[in-house]
Request: fold
Amino acid sequence: MTETTLLEVSQLTSGYGKETVLQGVDLHVKQGELVAVIGRNGVGKSTLMRTLVGLMKTRSGKIQFGGTEVSDLPPDRRARAGIGYIPQGREVFPELTIRENLLVGEVANVDGDAPDYERVYRFFPILKERSRQRAGTLSGGQQQQLAIARAMIGNPALMLLDEPSEGIQPSIIKDIARNLRSLNAETGAAVLLVEQNLDLIVSLADRGYVMEKGRIKATLGPKAIRDREQVRKHLTI
Reply:
């Protein structure tokens, strides 16, 4: 991990209609880091991710990525800048095959290099085995693997994952954590993770932020983010 800041968020506000959900969020992610955003349900974690990727409008504050402000850029421009997004609920294209879903991910690859399908299949071999299968017929865990792989095809510098453990059996969650750590080590891609699964948080994150009522209320360093009891108290309703 380098000391170069990849993502810098300053006093970010966003919301729905007249409701302001994010109340001046400050956070950063350095190159190569794996960072978790944790907190109870309804504190604004998913709103944060949707705002970072451009699906929700920034009302005030700044989002800087790679030293460039991207606050007003649409989602496709942010993807081409190097931000990969794996949404809550996965949102694969159910009527398309696995291969066709992965082809969609190529749109974000603007480096000029050929997409590295072999690397994707090395991490998720079942996607190669079933490349002609429609995505809608996959299990929840397999769809999550596909959603991560689709983001990988774009060769992002930063991957935003929103609740990747949701609706997935524990064995697959362990596989996802292992693959994300391996991907991080191999490619240097940073990860910003919104999650409530205790096991995934403590096994994956290098450090973390605690959200409460649309604000960052605490930061957790490397030791704290691996302390199960300390993390648990921020997740308990």
Summary: The mean pLDDT is 92. Residues 85 and 160 are 5 Å apart (CA to CA). The radius of gyration is 17 Å.
